[in-house]
Each structure stands twice: as C-alpha cells, then as structure tokens.
C-alpha cells in the first residue's frame, strides 16, 4: 500500500469522518486517495481557516479535529490555527506535506521547517521519513492529541514517503514509556482537601476549560451543590457549569461580573477545576484571592503553581477527581455557607451585568445577544471572534450546556470564530450555530463565505458593526486620551459582499428592528450574514485595567 | 541559585532542539548542557545546569521538561547525594613563575599536562562544582589563552 493510502486508512481507523484543508504540490498523492475515501473533505479558502474549522469541530464534539495543508506556505498558514488550539488545549491532528526527503534542508521550493516552526505550538510533532513508521505515528498522534491535556499534534509527511510502498498494519494498542498522564487524583490529597472544605466559610469553585475537556459538567454541578458553594466559570469554562444555575457567578477576571470578582477576592477557599489561572482571570497576582487557600485540580502538572501558589495540588482528570471527591465526602461534612450565599445574592442584586438602552438611539450589542439568547432559548452553539464581540457574547448569552461556546481564549485569535463555526456546524448539523463577530475580525477570514456557499453550511453570522476595532478603541478611549490610532475601520458593504458569494444578507439599523431581524436570520433556511450597525463607542463593562486587582473594576459598580 | 538536573531522553530526532527551545521559549537560563548516550542506546542522558531565581521557577523547569513527550525521567540533584565532573581543556601562557603556579594547580586539582609548546601548556583539568570558581580564578591569574569545557555531567550516589 502507498504511504498516502496508509495515511487515509489510518485516519479511518481513528474514526475520522471529516477533514478540512487545502491541496498543494506536496500533498497531491494524499488528495488522490482522499478523492475516493469515505471521509468528507471541506476545502476552505485559506489554510488558517482549515485549522480553525478543525478546532471548531473538536470543541463542539470532543473528537479530534483534522486539517491538512501542503508544504511551505500551506503549512505556515496553518500555524495560527495550531497555536490557537494549543493555547486552548484542543485536540487536533494537523497533517502537512513536506518536500521529498532528499531535498529537506536544501531550501527547496515550498520548503519550510515545520517541525522547528511548530515545536512550541504543538503538544508534539513528527517528521515521518520512513513509510514503515507512518501507521504507528498516526496512532501515536491521535493518542497524544486527545489524552491527558489535549492539544494539537502535527505530522509532517514528505511527498516521496506518500508514494512509497509498505504493508499496512495498524497497531491495536499503544504504549509510550514516556507519556502516561495521571488520571486519578491522589486520595491523600483529596482527604486533605475535604478538611479544608469542612472549615471553609466562603468557598468559590472556579470551573475552567479542563472541566469541559474531561466532560465533567455534571460532576461540577453535583460537587458545587454538595459544597453549597458558588461557581465562577472562566471564558474557557463557559458551559462547564450552567450559567442559569442559581449558584452561578458567571465569569471572573478582566471582563467578569462584579459579583464573581468580589466573591473570588473575599473567598477563604478557591477550588479550581481545570483552570490555569491565566492573567486575564487573576489580574494583579498579589491581590488575587488574598485570604484564600487554593485547591487546584488539573491534569497538567505544569499548570499547577505556575502563576499562583497552590495549597493542595491534585493532578488528575477533572471528571474522575470530582467523582473521587463525591465518593470521599466525609459523613460529618456540613456546608457552612449560608451567610456567604446570602452575601453573594446581595452582590448579584446590587451589581448585575447591565447596559444602558437610553444613552444612544443606536442598537446596543448586548441587546442583540440577549435577543439571540431569548430566541434560541440558549440552545445555540455560539462561536465568537475576538474583542468586544467576544466579551459581550460571553456576558450576555447564557451557557447551560458544555461545548456550546467556542472562542479563542488563550491566543485571542481574530479570524477564529467564523471558520470554527463552520467546523462546529459540520460536526453538529442539528444545532443552530451562530458566529458573533466584529466588523474587524469577520474580515480576517471573510473568504470562508465561499466555503459556506460551496457546501451550504448553515451558519448564521451576526456582525456587531461599530466601524472600529472596538476593544483596542476602548483601551485608547480609557487609557490613551481617545487617540484612536489605527482603529477606525472603513468597511465594505457586507450585504453586497455576502451577495457576491450567494449568501443571504441583511443590514439592521434600529433597535426596534432587532427582534424581527433575528427571527429572519434564524428562520432562513441556509447561511445568513447580518450586519448590525451598533452604537460606535459602546464599551465592555465591567473592566479591570490590565495588571490591576480584580476587585478594582471600571463600570458596573453602581 | 544553580541546580543540576538530569533528564533521560529518548534517542530520537530533534530531542535536543525540543529541550533547548523549551528553555528559550520560557526564558529560563541554562548554564551548561551535556548530552551523551548511556548504556542503553535507546536513551541519552542530558545533564543541565540551570540558574533558577526561585523554587517556583525550578519546579516549572522540571515539570515542563517532564512534559516533553520524549523525556523519560527528570531528576533534580539539588537535595540529593551526587558526584559531578566537568572536563576543561585549556592553553596556559608560559611566563615567569608559571611553574610554581602549575604545581599548585596540580596539587589541588586533577590536572594533566597534555602538551608543552614554546608559548603555552595544554592542560586537561577535571573539576567539580565547588572547585570551579577557585580554579578559574587561579587559571586567570596565570593567563588563559584558550579554554573549552564539556559542560557538567553528574551521577547520583
């Protein structure tokens, strides 16, 4: 069997049904076998979008997303998507063609050192120089990508190896002597943690992306209810604990809720479930939860005590560890959180997330998102771009289910949301999938309108158009004397752009038209691009200035 | 503070680059790095001397190293019993009174005079970490023309 066919057969063995990518000189043999393979292939119009689509597919399902590109520029175009997946621990296998082995290192046409380039943005990478190693490498790559802390793995495959013959034998099992992630938490640590929990008066559970990766959403609810503790979900953790649960605090950190930040700051015990304490969550480290002991559950030991000192580290899979916690609950345990929950209720009533509908005659972006929430009953998968649109989507849509909020959290990649939504819709065709974008970020991968129309992928695009790179403009307004350097945008006519691709489109100008427009968008049988002209200088509040303590918020503290 | 760390790594393509780029990407300081095969040809031993400003960063370095897929084990010798050696080859200028200094060197350290040329001695010196500073000071006093070293290797007791 030829190498290219071995690759396809190996992917089949891994259960791959869908791939995203772009052909080129070094992957022609591979595409030749893909032509007849029972794998649905989606041709994006840029390799970056292929990586994001594979990422969206993975985030919406938990399955490993697969993308493919040719050597050189095709491969380097994937890198932003690979880095995005790496920062957010998304399982992905990226396959890149490479120049033939005899030319490697010779600066050949369309040669790039992908192993070198992607070393720090992949969980691991492989250059396959012998066709005999290919099947095992694919097995290992998929195992690595979707075990432990998930992440992207790159396989660089020279074109001559794709054409060489070998016996195809797919390994049944895999054993890696150097890689064996800890799954179960240490029982002694869990016992110690229960001691702290027993004396805690002001506990807060923080749910991060790790809880979603391990499928621990049900355990998170049981655990929080057993503790009678409030739960804050980070951007990556949205949906890991239902936003509409009475104990939900929403998001902590830079654009978190006032009550989440007050609760974290005043807590005496923080229990992190798969949250890595990113600087956007912690704010100023010395003022972060100053009186709290910290229990940190994470499958990646390097996440523990990286940014903040942890009192009880527990390395393991979040779902398994929480189950262990629930099984090990001491009989004597009695939550003592009544006063704390009363305090939190007061904070929630006093400082709700809010926005003014009277200070501008224009559409408020928060209103658009609330209306989307109302009309989809919170059941849609929301894929965001990066910036103000992302924060409003995190704040004003409520996420009661896991894998319904797709967003580039760690890397903050503009251009992520639209192609990721394509991947999500392909993976979950029964779901409504909505992109919430800004007028800046939608243009970073707007060529994917061609992918939408080619395959009829029914994704709805909502552009919150303020004619600015809004988040940077907001910082310039607040910290740089309104000097709007390189942030005003002269945009194309989005309606006409969409029409050019044969996609239904509309423009919405006034607040009273918002509900009807959203009804039209959701009711249309096919993809839609909608341009909502929103209040230009609307800001995302609350806001913690970078490097400031998270209880020192601008806006929101009435 | 300086720490000696041993990493046993799989003998695979690109492992050294993975370790080196981990250090550069995360801004850790690496003072010396010595790599060689072990009795088991499938693995190599890397001995790293790192300068970690605090315990937290040292912990991160160890954990990040261990996270690399090709790394088998990581041992920090800091609080362990171990022996270490560093091999130096150096050319020392001949000048007045150098013979006495050389004798002093030979008494205190493992020194072999490999060659004697018109203008210099070529020495082989084996050192361990607590002699290092003193040795370098003495050599500098005599006059170093050239100095190369292998980097430290260490073995647990």
Describe this structure as you would to a colleague.
The complex is a heterodimer of chains A (558) and B (157). Chain A is 36% helix and 16% strand. Chain A is built from 21 helices and 18 strands. In chain A, the strands form 3 sheets. In chain A, strands 2-1-3-4-6-5 form a 6-stranded parallel β-sheet, sandwiched between helices. Chain A has a 6-stranded parallel β-sheet with strand order 9-8-7-10-11-12, with helices on both faces. A 6-stranded parallel β-sheet of chain A has the order 14-13-15-16-18-17, with helices on both faces. Chain A is globular. With 157 residues, chain B is α+β, with helices and mostly antiparallel strands. Chain B has 2 domains: 2-76, Alpha-Beta Plaits, CATH 3.30.70.260; 82-156, Alpha-Beta Plaits (2-Layer Sandwich), CATH 3.30.70. In chain B, strands 5, 6, 7, 8 and 9 form a 5-stranded antiparallel β-sheet that branches. The longest helix of chain B is centred in the middle third of the chain and has 13 residues, at 55-67. Chain B is elongated and about 55 Å long. The mean pLDDT of chain B is 91. Chains A and B meet through loops of A and helix 1 and helix 2 of B.
Short description, anyone?
The complex is a heterodimer of chains A (558) and B (157). With 558 residues, chain A is of the alpha/beta class.
The CATH topology name of the largest domain in chain B reads Alpha-Beta Plaits
Tally of individual helices of chain B: 4
**Based on DSSP secondary structure assignment, what is the total number of beta strands of chain B?**
9
Terminal Cα span of chain A: 69 Å
CATH superfamily of the largest domain in chain A: Thiamin diphosphate (ThDP)-binding fold, Pyr/PP domains
Portion in strands of chain B:
35-45%
CATH class label of the largest domain in chain A: Alpha Beta
Strand content of chain A: 15-25%
| CATH classification, class level of the largest domain in chain B | Alpha Beta
| Low-confidence runs of chain B | none
The SS-based structural class of chain A is alpha/beta
CATH architecture of the largest domain in chain A: 3-Layer(aba) Sandwich
CATH topology of the largest domain in chain A: Rossmann fold
Q: For the CA atoms, what is the radius of gyration of chain B?
A: 18 Å
Averaged pLDDT of chain B: 91
The most extensive contact between chains is: A-B, 18 and 19 residues
- Please give the radius of gyration of chain A in angstroms: 24 Å
Distance between the termini of chain B: 22 Å
